[in-house]
Amino acid sequence: MERIEGTENLDPILMMDHSHRYQWASSCVYGTVLDIACGIGYGSRYLVNNPRVTNYIGVDIAPEAIDKAKINYSSDVCSFYVGSAYDLTFIQDESIDVLVSMETIEHLQQPELAMKEFRRILKKDGIFLGSVPTRGLDEHHDQYHGGNQYHLTRFDFNCIKELLSKYFDFVNIYLSQIRLCIETHPLTKSIGSISPVQIESIKYTEDLKDLGIFLFAASLRDLDEPELSTILPSSSSVFLGPLYFEKYAKYIDLYNQYMLTTNLYQDQQKICHDLEDKYQKLYSDYLLTTNMYQDLQKIYNDMDEKYQKLYLDYQLHSNTLEG
Predict the structure, then answer these.
(1) Under a CB-based contact definition with an 8 Å cutoff, are residues 60 and 35 in contact?
(2) Residue 128: closest CA among 158, 155, 166, 157
(3) Residue 77 in contact with residue 54, Cβ under 8 Å?
(4) In terms of CB atoms within 10 Å, which end of the chain has fewer, N or C?
(5) In terms of C-beta distances under 8 Å and separation of at least 24 residues, what long-range contacts does 113-117 make, across chains too?
(6) CB 128 within 8 Å of CB 99
(7) DSSP 8-state symbol, 92
(8) What 3-state class would DSSP assign to 219?
């Protein structure tokens, strides 16, 4: 799903997956917050719940999504505008404290252009919070769900690290995965020009095909500063509980139906194979009988020719005697 069109009747685990990213970001937003690709604006309710937020601006390229956002989430604090990640000229230079953009830059053919625009509008001590699907997740969708035509750029760990480090001095990257819980763990801490540190407890390599999303925090400001380190997200686990088990129960029911259908299909295949074997045997018998018939026909024809020849000789001999 590329954009949530409405929160009603939405799969609860899918909703939890999408909302979890905003919950993750909500602890460290403050001041003026810009949400790029805000969709219908549901993320605003998580971000403005932080009392440090004084102004929320939601931007999306789809006018119909912004119309829904204005109807459902506009307030004295929240405003919504149509706009593109490539062109935010209606936002002043260095005016944004926190820029949030979840599941956005994988949709861009040139994410570097968006990064330049993000840097322009962020204050010098501003923070960029975002997420992208892992390359492993995209490849999983290619194999089992036909791929995603809207994902134009794919990110493994090194790709997202290099892109962010090109525009920001300090970068923290996390991996979030859905299991029984939605688990989020740091992969790196303070990648940048001052204190690059790789967290050794996370054995992440370029070859690892993790199914999940990369969450990240990037800034020109040292993310290890006490003021920031206490509010920046770290490891977290959101228990899905009944949502997971309800989904699992539906899966088991579907799996049982699948196995029943598979068994019926295999039984039908066995019957078809048995019929095919009988047909092949009957066809072989037919060919054998046909060959025997053709041999007998040849013998009959030969005997008929000999009979005709003998009969002619007999007629000739009889005429000679009578004469």
Answers:
(1) no
(2) 166
(3) yes
(4) C
(5) 113/86, 114/36, 114/85, 114/86, 115/163, 115/164, 115/166, 115/167, 116/167, 117/85, 117/86, 117/87, 117/88
(6) yes
(7) P
(8) strand
pLDDT, tens digit, 9 for 90 and up, residues 279-313: 999 999 999 999 999 999 999 999 988 999 888 88
* pLDDT reading at 201 higher than 50: no
The DSSP letter of residue 106 is G
| Max CA distance (Å), the chain | 143
Higher model confidence: residue 247 or residue 131? 131
Q: Is the Cβ–Cβ distance between 107 and 152 less than 8 Å?
A: yes
Beta bridge partners, 82, equal: 60
The amino acid present at 36, given as its one-letter code, is: I
Asked if 32 and 40 touch (Cβ cutoff 8 Å), the reply is: no
**Of 202, 196, 200, which is closest to residue 177 (Cα–Cα)?**
202
CB 39 within 8 A of CB 81: no
Average pLDDT over residues 64-84: 96
CA distance 112 to 98: 19
Q: How far apart are CA 56 and CA 45, in angstroms?
A: 10
Structure confidence at residue 52 as a pLDDT band (50, 70, 90)? very high
Q: What amino acid is encoded at 105 in this protein?
A: I
What does DSSP assign to residue 149? T
List alpha helices for the chain, DSSP H: 12-26, 44-47, 63-73, 111-121, 135-145, 157-167, 226-229, 242-322
- Residue 186 near residue 176 (C-beta atoms within 8 A): no
Q: Quick one: DSSP state of residue 29?
A: -
**Cα–Cα distance for residue pair 100/118, rounded to 1 Å:** 10
Instruction: Please name the amino acid found at residue 89.
Output: T
Contact at 8 Å (CB) between 60 and 37? yes
In one letter, which amino acid is 226?
A: P
